[in-house]
């Protein structure tokens, strides 16, 4: 049983070969291949730890760790936050007719984000901000 080649996955939408991190398997004994450096020829190889099988890696990328950092300023805010008795309250008219809202400061800390206050209506849970 050999590893699938990159050509087997061409029908998928991933065009960047670095996003295609595949597990490789030995064609002799079907065990998992592990990355190994060939220091003489300065190449990346995949080698079997059970038998002596090795193959040259198609890409130099062994592992890819993507960190999603697109969290919004009001991440985690739900309508229940309006029922939190520890948050300060203000008289602010909402389109639903309610006159009370709780407010809090943005938890997003970036250089381009100034201080923004977010208001949550106590009646409908609608979130509005001052920015």
From TrEMBL:
InterPro entries tied to this protein: Rpa12/Rpb9/Rpc10/TFS, Zn_ribbon_RPB9, Zn_ribbon_RPB9_C, Znf_TFIIS
Record keyword Zinc-finger present: yes
Domain TFIIS-type residues, every copy: 90-129
A Pfam family that the UniProt record links to this protein: Zn_ribbon_RPB9
UniProt: Zn(2+) 1 binding residues: 26, 29, 48, 51
Location in the cell: Nucleus, Nucleolus
Recorded GO MF terms: DNA-directed RNA polymerase activity; nucleic acid binding; RNA-directed RNA polymerase activity; zinc ion binding
GO terms classed as biological process: maintenance of transcriptional fidelity during transcription elongation by RNA polymerase II; transcription initiation at RNA polymerase II promoter; transcription-coupled nucleotide-excision repair
Signal peptide residues on this chain, from the entry's feature table: none
UniProt keyword Iron, yes or no: no
Residue spans, zinc finger C4-type: 26-51
Keywords: DNA-directed RNA polymerase, Metal-binding, Nucleus, Transcription, Zinc, Zinc-finger
Gene Ontology CC: one annotated term: nucleolus
Sites where the protein binds Zn(2+) 2: 94, 96, 121, 124
Family to which the UniProt record says this protein belongs: Belongs to the archaeal rpoM/eukaryotic RPA12/RPB9/RPC11 RNA polymerase family.
Subunit structure and binding partners: Component of the RNA polymerase II (Pol II) complex consisting of 12 subunits.
Known function: DNA-dependent RNA polymerase catalyzes the transcription of DNA into RNA using the four ribonucleoside triphosphates as substrates.
Protein name (database record): DNA-directed RNA polymerase subunit
Origin species: Epicoccum nigrum
